[in-house]
Design goal:
Layout lengths: L12 H11 L3 E5 L6 H16 L4 E6 L8 H4 L4 E3 L9 E5 L11 H4 L5 E4 L10 E4 L6 H11 L6 H14 L10 H12 L4 H9 L4 H13 L1 E3 L4 E6 L1 H7 L9 H6 L6 E8 L2 E8 L6 H6 L4 E2 L3 E6 L5 H18 L3
Parallel strand pairs: 1-2, 1-4, 2-3, 4-5, 5-6, 8-9
Antiparallel strand pairs: 7-8, 9-10, 10-12, 11-12
Helix pairs in contact: 2-5, 2-6, 5-6, 6-7, 6-8
This protein binds manganese (II) ion (MN).
């Protein structure tokens, strides 16, 4: 084991312990980001469990959107309430996996000006809460939470271990991203020892696709465009693609990996038409080529190799592709790789 008997996250032990103590006897809302991914869903579930375990009087799980289909079995047992319809009166809020309070929901910042805590692993997190437990070295918020649970002597049950394992697997694309480190694998091993089942998680994530999602994948693959000698590859999704396939918004998750999988591609993206603009996901093969800086040009952010944005200024997808190609080209030309 990498850790032996040592703490996994000694730097956060005091802050996390203090947070658990503070929550005793209080009403706490745990809120993740809109359009939740596996890490967000699992981190919410796990923190809700820990707060209940530690004596919070009431704990609720919030998300603006529904739990995506692939994570429903993992999330069974945790009821999620829609963030926008929740009455925050009497509750303190902890956000998980959110780099920015705007990622919770459009109105969250007005309704909860300063959350109790933010637990996150995004390098772009701007420490917007009273207590900020931010670990950019963690491959997933679930890795950070699992490590802090073990350090605090908590013993999550099998269902929570499976959820945390899911969060790590999804954010690391099955332990293959450049964010995956020895500590990530060691935390995953501890979760497996505590009851997580890698094969159960794999079946949930990789053997339960809906045909509608594969239809959207087909549309995305057909739309792929290349630039800069094959170093840029991106595909576009129009509203019509969702209508004709019956796919859901959540079905865009993972599509960008197909563009990145192509030999020679250094920068990959999916650009999606939304009602008032364009949503984008960006991936790079090397963290030296900063996906988060490219996303920031369009009001977004994220990780060095995986970032996203939602441009809601009425820009049309067709106008935007040229702007995006130019900005992507500048990044490719400036990168020494
Ligand atoms: Mn995450």
């Amino acid at each position: 084991m990498v850790f032996g008997e040592k703490d996994i996250f000694p730097e956060f032990k005091e802050a996390f312990g203090g947070l658990l103590d503070y929550c005793k006897g209080r009403k706490i809302a745990v809120a993740g980001h809109m359009r939740p991914d596996g890490d967000c869903v699992s981190s919410t579930i796990a923190l809700v469990w820990a707060l209940r375990e530690c004596g919070a009087s009431e704990v609720v799980a919030l998300n603006r959107d529904s739990v995506p289909f692939l994570y429903r079995n993992i999330a069974a047992g945790t009821e999620f309430i829609k963030t926008d319809s929740f009455d925050f009166d009497g509750f303190e809020t902890i956000t998980v996996d959110c780099a920015d309070p705007k990622r919770v929901s459009d109105t969250f910042s007005e309704r909860v000006p300063c959350p109790l805590a933010s637990i996150d692993h995004h390098v772009s997190n701007n420490a917007f809460a009273k207590t900020n437990i931010i670990c950019p070295d963690s491959a997933a918020t679930a890795e950070l939470l699992a490590g802090m649970f073990f350090d605090a002597g908590l013993r999550p049950p099998k269902e929570v271990c499976n959820a945390l394992f899911t969060g790590i697997v999804t954010d690391t694309r099955s332990f293959t991203t450049n964010s995956t480190r020895a500590e990530t694998l060691a935390v995953a091993a501890k979760l497996a020892a505590a009851g997580a089942s890698p094969s159960y998680v794999a079946e949930q994530l990789y053997q339960r696709e809906r045909p509608e999602k594969l239809g959207l994948l087909a549309a995305y693959l057909k739309s792929l465009r290349f630039g800069y000698g094959g170093r840029l590859c991106y595909g576009i999704l129009r509203k019509a693609d969702f209508d004709s396939t019956g796919a859901l918004k959540e079905d865009t998750d993972g599509l960008v990996d197909y563009a990145r999988s192509i030999n020679g591609v250094r920068l990959a993206a999916v650009l999606e038409e939304i009602s008032d603009g364009v949503k984008g996901s960006i991936r790079t093969k090397s963290p030296d080529m900063r996906a988060d800086l490219l996303a920031a040009k369009f009001g977004g952010g994220g990780h060095k190799s995986a970032a996203g944005f939602s441009l809601r200024d009425g820009t049309s997808l067709d106008e935007f592709t040229g702007v995006f190609e130019k900005a992507a080209g500048e990044l490719l030309d400036n990168a020494d790789i």
